[in-house]
Structure formats: C-alpha cells, structure tokens
Amino acid sequence: MSSACDVLVIGAGAAGLMCALTAGQRGRRVVVLERANKVGKKILMSGGGRCNFTNIGTTPANFLSANPHFCKSALARYTPSDFIALVDRHGIPWHEKELGQLFCDRSSKDIVRMLLDECEAAGVHVVTECEAASVARGSDGFLVRASTGDFDCASLVVASGGLSIPSLGGSGLGYQLARQFGHDVLPTRAGLVPLTLSGRHAERLCDLSGVALPVEASCNGQSFRNAMLVTHRGLSGPAILQISSYWQPGDALRLDLLPGLDVAAHLRAQRSERPAAELRTVLADLMPRRFAHRLCEEWLGNRPMRELGDRALREIASALGQWPVIASGTEGYRTAEVTLGGVDTDGLSSTTMMSRHVPGLYFIGEVVDVTGWLGGYNFQWAWASGRAAGEVA
Fold first, then answer.
1. How many structural domains does the chain have?
2. Same domain? 176 vs 199
3. Which of 15, 173, 273, 359 could cross-link 159 (Cys pair, CB 3.0–4.6 Å)?
4. If you average pLDDT over residues 51-75, what whole number do you get?
5. What is the CATH number of the domain that holds 186?
C-alpha cells in the first residue's frame, strides 16, 4: 500500500524545504523525504554555524552555468529582500558581515526552525532517515519506492543536492534520476574548495600553515580580492575558494600578494627612507612576517634596499603582483562547499524548473547546473529555485 500525495520532494535541504512550504501554502499535500537523520544539515553547518543565508548584492553574474541566462527568471521573482522579509517575520536577528553577506546573529538553527515552522503551518509532512530507492512513472504521476515505504505523487521535485560534503548527505541520486528521465547531466566537479600543492611548491609553504593575508586571485579572466590562508595541504581562504570554481588543473592562476598598492613606488620610497633595511624587513611591514621572510628566502633574495636598483624593484613588484600558483588539484568533494555542473538547464523551464521531457518532474537547487559564488549566493539560488517550483508543482 503506498501513501498518496500531490507533491513529493526528495531532499530536505534549503531548496527542498522552500519548495515544500511554498507548495503547501497553495493547499497541495506535500511530503518531503530526507535520507539523513535530520533536515537542513548544510544549512546548520554553513557560515560557521551562523548561516550566510543570502547576499543582498545577488545578480545572475554571481553564478556559473553553461547557460548564464537560466537563473535570471527565478532570481528576479524571489529576491534577497523577499527572504529577508520571511526571516524578519519570524523575529530572527541578523547582520551584514561583508560584501553583502547576511548572517544569523544567533545560530543557523533559527533558519532551519523557520523553514520547518512554515512547513508545519502549511501541512507539509517531513520524513527523515528515508531514502528514495527508485522512481517509476505512472499513468498520473510517479511511484517512489523508499526505505520506509512507497509514495504515489502527481509532482516529483528532486532537491537532493550535489556531491559536495558527502558526510552531510550529498549524493549522486539527483543525477541518476535526471539521466533516467532523459536529461543530460553536465560533468561535475568540486567548487568553492581549497587548492592543494605538491612537491617543491608544497615544501616551500607547508610549514606556514595558518598564515593568512589579503590577496587578489585571478584565473581565466575572473578575479577575487579577499583573504588567503596557507594550509598544511595547500591554499584556502575566501579568495582561493572563490577562484577555485574557475580553475581547473593546468590553468594559470596568479595572486596579487599586495592588492591595491603601487608596490614599485612603495619600494622606491622605502629605499630612500630606509636604505639599510633589508627587503624582507620592508615586506614584513606589508604582510605576515613569516610569509615575507619565506618569499625572500625562496624566491626574491634578500639584500639591503640601497643595493636594489629601479629595475630590480620593478621586477620584485611585478613578481608580487603576478605571483604564480602551481596547484596540483583540489581537496575534492570532501570539503567542497558546492558541486559545479549537474542537470543541464537546457532540459528545464527557467520559469518553473519543470522538466521539458517529463511533465510534473522538477529539479531545483544544487543538483542543477547553476552554482553561486561564496557568500550566500547558493542559498539565494536554493530559495529562488525552490520557490519557482513550489508555485506550480
């Protein structure tokens, strides 16, 4: 005997819960299946437990996709202001941190509680520790066989996420279902992920683990200015996570180690004012001392400023402004915040997120080939795509 509902949502993450509560508010009978033991695990861990729930500067330009226009419709119809209004209605205190990023003052648990309260008010039934095993198409909808029983539904929404952070429930189920129903799935890879170094590159920096400094990272025509963190495996920090989505093995990656500074002019001034000072001492005034000293030990040399002519200072400035990083790879899905690639948007309606091949089948959130920058953008895509599907499913 199977349970019947109007809308079955696979995945109780940000997109799935938003879709469920939206459909429930329309009077639809909604069931959400979550394979983990609790809902919203990625929400709970995001932003250091404070949940960077949106970004007030969200535009389509903040997303990567084979079709950069696809995300425009959903994002235009459910904006950061719309989600902020929901947060405010539930009395959740929040603050803007930097670059338009909004965080909960208290805990990311507030966002999960808000979504569950909205689901409960809309009559949504959420089932945890329930894994969808198979999906078949019926005469008037879908039959979903799950670990706790079977479900008949008129509309099926796949919000199962991507492959990132499998310990929080990430899986390839959504891609499997997409292929089953005739959709193309674009190649996936880890995004917003630390880069790894190997060999000589790693040896030169690994003992500086924990050192952080502001940089501007550039790759394939894209640049991000923010902090970089040296780790025992390679490089991390917001600037590196951001650029990682644009980098693939073999691509040239450059760092401006002193962004915003006219380094050549500064070094000439220091030569006049402090001719006896060593280069490493001058650089240590501009960046962490250990990092400055390592640059001079391994790459730049270390002489008193008075011994460095204009050409030498120009070369040093150029090197610091275009520092090459030879990364060997990334830390992979284990620590990646998102999955790049996914269900090809050519097979979906940008207005409703419904399959162009199978009426009543929807794909939303991270499983779709739409990936945001670091800083609340991926949550905004989850809210917007979930809302778009929930309004019609």
1. 2
2. no
3. 15
4. 98
5. 3.50.50.60
